[in-house]
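Appendix B, Record 12. Input sequence as logged:
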Amino acid sequence: MSSLLPCIKKFAEDRSWRIRYMVAEKIMELAKGLGQGSAKEHLITYYALFLKDAESEVRTAALGKLSDFCKLLDAETILSKVAPSFADL
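Logged structural output:
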């Protein structure tokens, strides 16, 4: 897992929207690979950024995973990290 996190960070913060799109599209597979606890801790930051991304394709990919991704989170995390992005969408 420790070697996977730097790769995820690199691709989630990539300048190319196509790379960020693929990370957003595959976020549930990444979450399964990391495990629920680590996914909640490490992927929520990137997921929240995807919801605010400048490219609509990245936002759309993230929104497509909203239901599944939120199942990994507790209500407090959803309200503090995910829900604020809804106003911008």
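The chain is about 70% helix and 0% strand.
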